[in-house]
Write a structure and sequence with these properties.
Protein name: GH18 domain-containing protein
Radius of gyration: 15 Å
Organism: Elysia marginata
Structural class: alpha+beta
Oligomer: single chain
Distance between the termini: 33 Å
Shape: globular
Number of helices: 2
Helix content: 25-40%
């Protein structure tokens, strides 16, 4: 945000977004422009929850970059923007 009261503005936005995501009943943490969500859901339930989170963030024109972490299998899958040519 960059302004004198940018941190305070970010805190208000974070609180607003958390209030919109509260009904999902998963653990969500947001700090300024970063967020992390953790859940113990089945893959199908997690995908449904992810779609709901994306729907909510798209309502407010937020740009989402995501990464999937599988702590049990020590794997991660990074997200690449569709317009990003990696070749």
């Amino acid at each position: 945000m960059g302004s004198f009261d940018g941190a305070e503005t970010c805190e208000l936005v974070v609180l607003f977004l958390l209030s919109k995501l509260n009904h999902l009943n998963i653990s969500i943490g947001l700090y300024r422009d970063d967020g992390l969500a953790a859940c113990k859901l089945s893959p199908k339930q997690a995908e449904t929850t992810k779609k709901e989170m994306c729907k909510i963030s798209n309502e407010y024109n937020l740009n989402n970059l995501d990464i999937s972490l599988d702590l049990e299998n020590d794997m991660y899958m990074p997200y690449h923007k569709p317009s990003n040519n990696t070749t």
